[in-house]
Structure formats: C-alpha cells, structure tokens
Automatic annotation (TrEMBL):
Its EC number is 2.4.1.1. The keyword Isomerase does not apply. One of its GO terms (biological process) is glycogen catabolic process. It comes from the Bacteria. One of its GO terms (molecular function) is glycogen phosphorylase activity. The keyword Membrane does not apply. This is Alpha-1,4 glucan phosphorylase. GO terms for cellular component: cytoplasm. Allosteric enzyme that catalyzes the rate-limiting step in glycogen catabolism, the phosphorolytic cleavage of glycogen to produce glucose-1-phosphate, and plays a central role in maintaining cellular and organismal glucose homeostasis. Pfam families: Phosphorylase. It is found in: Cytoplasm. It catalyses: [(1->4)-alpha-D-glucosyl](n) + phosphate = [(1->4)-alpha-D-glucosyl](n-1) + alpha-D-glucose 1-phosphate. The gene is glgP.
Length: 815
C-alpha cells in the first residue's frame, strides 16, 4: 500500500482506467458514454500499446548497442489471430485492465470479441510462425519477423445450404491499433526489364534495368514476450505505386489509366493466397514472394552496414530462416545485392549467403513443392535467373566431380527441372543455398531424407536436422484455458508459468479422485461455453456431457475428414440398429476452410453438413449422436473449441502430415488423441504413453509398401468390410442428399477406384479404435486419468523448446 493507503494494485487499476479514458477521448475521439465495443477495443489496445512501446523502443536501442546476432524469420504467412489478450497477458496487465474496464462498466470479454483476427495465414505454417515470434521474444532472442501486410487475410467462410462460400476478409477496414507505420522505411522493389552486361577493369558487371518499380512500406507490430521480457518487431510490407497517379493520363481524361499503376502495385499486398498445400504458380504469387524478400533483405543489409560497416561479418551477426520455399528467391536476391550493389566477388558472396540462410520444409506433398516456369521467372526477375543459372552450374560441376557418371543424380539435384517446359525448383534452390535444412517432426525429417531430398542429402550430407514443432503455452493454455491454468499453478506451482516442464508434476496426482473431478469440472465448464457458441451460430443444442469429438484443421483429402465422416455414418447406422447398446453420446465437431479452388474438399464440407442435417433431425439417435460443422474456423474459434475438446482427431494418411500442431494444442488441454502414426502424433505417443492415446491404421512404411505393391486395392478392402460397403452405398446412393442423390457420387467413386489417401485400408481399424474410445469414455475416472497424463506430458511441445533448439543448433544465438 502506498502513502494514499491504496494498494499498488488499486493504483495500477486507476492508472489503467485513466489511460483508457484518455485514449477514448483523445485518440478515438469519443465520449465514453457513446462508445461502441469497437471503440473500447481501440482505446484499450492503444492504452496497452503505450506500455509495450517503451519496452519496444528500449529493446531496439539495446540490441542496436549490444552487437547481438539477430534472427530474421522470413514468412509469407503470420497467423496471429487477436492480440489484445496476448499483449495484456504477457505484460501481466490482464487482471488490471479487466478491473479498470469493469469500473468503467465495460465487460472485457466484449472488448476481446470486438477485435478482428489478423488472419494473415492459411493454417499450420502461418500459425507456427506466430508461435515462434512469441517464443523468440519470450526467450530474449533479438528477432525480426518479415512478411506482407495483406489488406485482406484468409477469406471469411460462410456456409450456405451446406456449401462453403468465400467472402473477403476485412481486418483493416477500420485500421488496426497495434501497428506503427514506418513511412521512413521504404524500399524500391524492381520487376522485369533486362540486364545489361558491362566489363569494368575486365570484371563483368551486370546492370539490371527494371521495367517496373514498386514501393515497399514498412509497418511494425510489436510482439510481446512472456512477462514483457522482450518486445520484437514484426515488420510487414505494404505495396504502393512509385507514382500514385499518372497525372499525364489523368489530365487527358483517362482516369482509370491514371490509376492502373497504383492498382497494379497495390495488388501485391492486397490479399493472401488462400491455397494451402497446393502451389498456385501464378505471377502475382511470385511478385508477392519477391516483393517481401527484396524489401526484407534491403532492410536487414542496410541495418547491418549501419551498425557494422561491412558485409563480410553478416553471417556472424544475422541468421535468416526461410519459412518453407515461399521466400526461397531470397538466396538469389542476397547474391544480387552482394554482387551488383556491393561488388563482392562471387565466392565471397556465396560464402556469406550460404552461411546466413537456413530453410524449413513443412510438406512433402508433391503439389505443394513450388516450381516456377522459366519464361515467367525470366520475364519478372531476369537478373535473378542469371544468378540461379550460375549457382546451378557450380553446384552441378561440384556434384559431377564428387559423383562422376551419375547423370540421373545430376538431373535430380539440379535447380532446373528439364522436364515439362523447364521449371525452377525452389526446394532445390533453398536447400543448396542454406547451411541447414530442417523438417518439423522426427518422421517428416526422416521421410525428407528418404524421398524429396534423398539425392541432395547424399550430395550435401549432414545439412538436414529435425526440429519438431511446438506451440506457445501462453496463448494455447494460459489465455484460452484459464481454468486449467489456475489448477496447474496450484498443483505444479506458479513457476509452471515460466517452466512448462513443471507440468509433469501433475502426473503424480493422476489417480487422485479430487483432482480428476476438478479436471473434469474445468473441461465441462469449457464445453458449456462451446455449447452456447454452437447454439448461437447454428441454432441447435448439443449436450455438454456428450463426448466432444473434434476435427479442426484445413480441409484437405490427406487430413481425411472424409474417413471421420464415414465412421460417423457407420456409427449412425449402428446406433439406429442397436439403440440400447452403451454408446458414448457423441458430438462430432468439424471446422476448417477449403482453398477456394479445391472442389473435392468443398464437396466434403457439403457432405459433412448434409450428414449433420440428417443425423441431427433423426429422433432415433437424439442424445446419442450430433454432427456440427462450425463455420469460419480461425485462431479465435480454435481458442474456444480446443479447451472444450475430449477427443482430438489426427487421422491423416501416415507420412503425409508433416507434423501437425493442433494435435499438441488439444492434448495440452486434456483431449485424448485418436490418430495414425504420422507427423508429431508419434512423438506425442512417445511422451504420453501407449495407454493414453488411440493409435490405428497403416504406418508410413506400410502405406509406401502398399502403394509400391498396388495391393490390396480399394475394391479388396471394401469387399473385406461389409460395414464400409454399406456406408459407401448409403452416401453414394443419396441417403444424405435426397434432393440430389448423385451429389456425392464423385467422392464414393474416387474411393472405390483410386482411394489415394487409403481410407478403405484404415476404415476397420479406425472403427475399432473409436469403439475403444467409447469403452474408455464410459469409465470417466480412467478417461480423466488419461487426460491428466496427456496434459502432464506435453511440456516438450512448447515452442520455447523448439526455438531454443533452432537457436542452439541452427542460428547459433544464445538463449
Ligand atoms: C504454395 C502453396 C502452399 C502454401 C502453404 C503451404 C504450407 C507448407 C502448408 C502448411 O501449412 N503445412 C503445415 O505446416 C505445419 C507447420 O510446420 C505442419 O504442422 C503441418 O503438418 C503442415 O501441413 C504449402 C504450400
């Protein structure tokens, strides 16, 4: 208590109140009496940002002075979500601001809900980048995130008559209170044109004469670490025309022509490509990739020269991480800047480049590996193509010397794919130009060595490392599940908030009925919250005492939402034909967006909704089975669904899900996993133990073997499973689409013929695993005990652990 007898806490609340009111009147320009939830959000965010900014600028000053090595995380996606709760929590201001707003008659929940998600990403890769930024700040690593400030993030999904519709996402329509415009940080980004070759004192010099220049303008968003330890910048680039309006054309009355440059330039940062795991291959995508890469490299090189004078020391002072191949053109851009702007010799430039970059691969799906047609690349980036040719020649020369008379090896490791019209393979470029390449789970990294990068790994052994993904426990536990967090602090000690490994202490009490009851009570309370969301958004009730069986992720055939739906139909049939059996009452919860052009995935969304309509209106299964498809899955909805989940569906075809991170979030919040031995599911199993997870299906090796052998076929599998046959007949026959009986024929025919993702191979063992789930669910103590063991063994999946590994083993920066 201070002299005025008011406690520091009350003092802090009073200050927060004054700050919020000051922002409301002076920045929002509103009388609190007339303020909307949005106004309160902006005022609160600005008040919170003030607290952050001091630390932000302080951090910048410090790291300028301290000569510390910086990490630069280049990613075309940062799936941040909302920031208010994260900033307030990490600055330990949440309770104070909640009390302050409360005193002003404002419910902080409504203020939180008024913030739009920053949906600047598609799924796993983008969200991982956001978790990594928060962990780097928490661990005190001086880091910059570099990306694009899309005017429109991932589309808003609306489900109309069961069909997905896409609507522009508009997070910036009222601006965002978190960012600082850095109008003094603007770079020229050049495209097209030609390259002139000149010899200067018999050294070849290349002068690029671009046909187009676009301005990249920086916007900085502070990323706050836990306990406000550090604040790092996320620098996002926005595109502007070098010449906003061609007055000459305007004066001639060609108003549209006068603005075409502006439109063409601004298009670069207009919208996020909604394709997940399928390379778009469109020119605008390449323009986006080069735009942010060139701006980021110009920015970090200028900063380095400003502090250290020369570029030779860059690898000692900077580590640049390529988040998949999307920024891989950075290898050529770095060489261009070193050769053409700083006149370094080739070998020196290459030494600096290849010892500064490292690359993370997030997928082995062939259709997701980016390749660019040479003609397009040459037209847009003529100088970079010259440099890539040179890199490739030296690379192939070296390979030829070390591996003579292996022509197929040369063509396999070449950056240029000579087949189908000559294409640039960005994976090869990223691999050759990086000192380290990493996969995102143990299995994925092994498969990378055996398949996609087998030959490059042979030519450059020892470059591949594994870095199993992680998640930030601040957002995905503390902020989204305060009930469980409070219990963990009591049982494991407050310091569990700083040392996730202490969560293991919970396991000692796994058999304690009192603890089991508390865990079950917390889960039920989170389920009641989700029940309300289902009723509000879909207009029907689900029971909180049912088993919440959750599959939430991007729609993709390899993630096998369809397999879950086949089991749902089989269960529906089984319950109807045997209503008295002790079925665990279930709510099947689906959520996830399909890329706008992904027809098959969108048809599966329709199937989910048609099955839901039939099941939810069938009195014979009332109280036993409900199917829910929640629209517009995003970070904020995930924060509501995950704490309420009992069962986590991680059922991808083994070998196809690089890691998964939703699996970690769900297990950390006490859901039991039903899954294949794929991605990080395997490491989750290794940590929680075989008895606390439901594993089924073919292993990755068995999948490969069956693919190679071409047997058993889908027809064989269906013949061997009467239940599966019945389900396929029902769906294919229009039972769930009486208004269009052939609607799902394409899906069923695809399964009967190809079944590329081996659903028919895994159906029976999946069904059996789900029945094991029923069995355990009907023994609540055992179920809750297993949930406790899952929570207690998830510490390793903290992104703090992952980032500490990147820091020590790839970036060589202290933590
Ligand atoms: C070029 C189009 C495109 C866009 C995004 C992607 C990403 C790599 C897709 C993605 O998000 N992959 C997911 O990355 C997560 C983080 O490492 C993993 O946990 C998931 O398993 C992986 O599917 C590929 C291709």
């Amino acid at each position: 208590t201070n002299t005025a007898g008011t406690s520091d806490y009350e003092q802090a609340i009073a200050e927060a109140k004054a700050a919020i009111i000051a922002k409301m009147t002076l920045s929002v320009g509103k009388d609190p009496g007339y303020a909307t939830d949005r106004d309160w959000f902006v005022a609160t965010a600005l008040a919170a940002r003030d607290r952050v900014t001091h630390r932000f600028l302080g951090g910048k000053r410090a790291s300028k002075a301290d000569g510390k090595k910086r990490v630069y995380y280049l990613s075309l996606e940062f799936l941040i979500g909302r920031q208010l709760t994260d900033v307030l929590y990490n600055f330990e201001l949440y309770d104070i601001f909640r009390a302050a707003l409360g005193d002003l008659g404002v419910d902080i929940e409504r203020v939180r809900e008024a913030e739009p998600d920053a949906a600047l990403g598609n799924g796993g890769l983008g969200r991982l980048a956001a978790c990594f930024m928060e962990s780097m700040a928490t661990l005190g690593i001086p880091a910059y995130g570099y990306g694009i400030r899309y005017d429109h993030g991932l589309f808003r999904q609306v489900i109309k008559d069961g069909w997905q519709q896409e609507f522009p996402e508009t997070w910036l329509e009222n601006g965002t209170p978190w960012e600082f415009l850095r109008s003094d940080v603007t770079y020229d980004i050049r495209f097209g044109g030609s390259v002139e070759t000149k010899t200067v004192n018999n050294v070849p010099r290349f002068i690029w004469h671009p046909s187009e220049v676009v301005h990249a303008v920086a916007y900085d968003t502070p990323i706050v670490g836990w306990r406000g330890s550090n604040v790092n910048p996320l620098r996002l680039w926005s595109a502007r025309a070098a010449d906003p309006i061609a007055l000459s054309l305007f004066n001639k009355g060609d108003h549209v022509g006068a603005l075409s440059d502006q439109a063409r330039s601004a298009a670069i940062s207009k919208v996020l490509y909604p394709s997940d795991e399928t390379a778009a291959g469109q020119e605008l995508r390449l323009r986006q990739e080069y735009f942010f890469v060139s701006a980021s490299l110009q920015d970090l090189i200028n900063r380095h020269i400003r502090i250290y004078g020369d570029l030779y020391s860059l690898p000692d002072r900077a580590a640049i991480q390529l988040n998949d191949t999307h920024p891989a053109v950075a290898i050529a851009e770095m060489m261009r800047i070193l050769l053409d702007d700083h006149n370094l010799r080739w070998d020196e430039a290459w030494r600096i480049t290849s010892s500064t970059f490292s690359y993370t691969n997030h997928t082995l799906l062939p259709e997701a590996l980016e390749t660019w047609p040479l003609p397009l690349f040459e037209r847009l980036l003529p100088r970079h193509l010259q440099i890539i040719y040179f890199i490739n020649n030296l690379h192939l020369e070296a390979t030829k010397k070390n591996f003579p008379n292996e022509p197929e090896l040369l063509s396999s490791v070449s950056i240029i794919d000579e087949r189908d019209g000559r294409r640039l393979r960005m994976g090869q470029l990223a691999f050759i130009g990086s000192h380290t390449i990493n996969g995102v789970s143990a299995l994925h990294t092994d498969l990378m060595k055996e398949t996609t990068f087998r030959d490059l790994n042979r030519v450059y052994p020892g470059r591949i490392q594994n870095k199993t993904n992680g998640i930030t426990f601040r957002r995905w536990l503390q902020q989204s599940n305060p009930g469980l967090t409070k219990l963990l602090c009591e049982v494991c000690g407050e310091e569990v908030l700083d040392k996730p490994e202490l969560i293991k202490r919970l396991e000692e009490h796994a058999d304690d009925p009192a603890l089991q009851q508390r865990i079950a009570k917390i889960k039920r309370a989170n389920k009641v919250v989700l029940c309300k969301i289902v009723t509000d958004r879909l207009g029907f009730r689900v029971e909180a005492d049912s088993l919440f069986d959750v599959q939430i992720k991007r729609q993709h055939e390899y993630k096998r939402q369809l397999l879950n739906l086949l089991e749902t139909v089989a269960l529906y049939d089984a319950i109807r034909s045997n209503p008295t059996a002790d079925w665990a009452p279930r709510v099947k919860i689906f959520a996830g967006k399909a890329a706008a052009s992904y027809v098959a995935a969108k048809l599966i969304i329709k199937l989910a909704n048609d099955i839901a309509k039939t099941v939810n209106n069938d009195p014979s299964v009332q109280g036993k089975l409900k199917v829910v498809f929640l629209p517009n899955y995003n970070v904020s909805l995930a924060e509501k669904i995950i704490p309420a989940a009992d069962l986590s569906e991680q059922i991808s075809t083994a070998g196809m899900e690089a890691s998964g991170t939703g699996n970690m979030k769900l297990a950390l919040n006490g859901a039991l996993t039903i899954g294949t031995l794929d991605g990080a599911n395997i490491e989750i199993k290794d940590n929680v133990g075989d008895d606390n997870i439901f594993i089924f299906g073919l292993t990755a090796a068995e999948v490969e073997e069956r693919k190679r052998a071409g047997a058993p076929t889908a027809t064989d599998n269906i013949a061997a499973s009467p239940m599966l046959r019945q389900v396929l007949d029902a769906i294919g026959g229009g039972v769930f689409s009486p208004d269009d009986p052939n609607r799902f024929k394409p899906i069923i025919d695809g399964l009967r013929s190809q079944d590329r993702y081996m659903l028919t191979d895994d159906f029976d063992s999946y069904w059996a695993a789900q029945r094991r789930v029923d069995e355990l669910w009907n023994q609540p103590e055992k179920w809750t005990r297993a949930a406790i063991v899952n929570i207690a063994n998830m510490a390793w999946f903290s992104s703090d652990r992952t980032i500490a590994e990147y820091a020590e083993q790839i970036w060589k920066v202290p933590v």
